[in-house]
Specification:
Blueprint: H1 14-22, H2 29-43, H3 49-59, H4 61-68, H5 70-111
């Protein structure tokens, strides 16, 4: 667990610390204090408020933000949806096409048979014109 060094002096203003760590709006201080108490019980010692704050932020802030501030959580959701679309296209379109292209080139290299000769000319939607060198 990534934690910062325990602070030896007490934090005077918890609300100010929450604004520094999260910006506005901040999660309720009760959530952070409850997390501090639970993690201190697990550790068998007082872990300190800054450690509890950063630990809560790493473990629980994304879910809290999604539940209590859904409008602000949408960019992360749209990035996740974009990543899912990109992974789908890569796995289901690009990889099979690359595999077919490699297979066609291996067949042509080993047997001399050009697989593109079996495509009827009326199926070709566009023609790539390569100038003669």
């Amino acid at each position: 667990m990534n934690t910062i060094q325990d602070v030896t002096h007490p934090v005077e203003n918890l609300d100010e610390l929450l604004v520094i760590a999260f910006g506005k709006p901040t999660p309720p201080t009760e959530e952070i204090l409850r997390h501090k108490w639970l993690e201190s019980e697990k550790a068998g010692r007082d872990i300190g408020l800054p450690t509890a704050l950063y630990d809560w932020r790493a473990k629980h802030y994304p879910n809290w933000k999604l539940a209590y501030m859904p409008r602000e959580a949408t960019p992360a959701q749209s990035r996740a949806a974009s990543n899912r679309r990109a992974n789908f296209l890569f796995r289901n379109v690009l990889l099979p096409l690359a595999a077919l292209w490699i297979l066609a080139n291996v067949i042509e290299w080993t047997t001399g048979f050009d697989c593109t000769d079996v495509i009827p000319p009326d199926w070709v939607l566009w023609t790539i014109v390569v100038p003669n060198h």
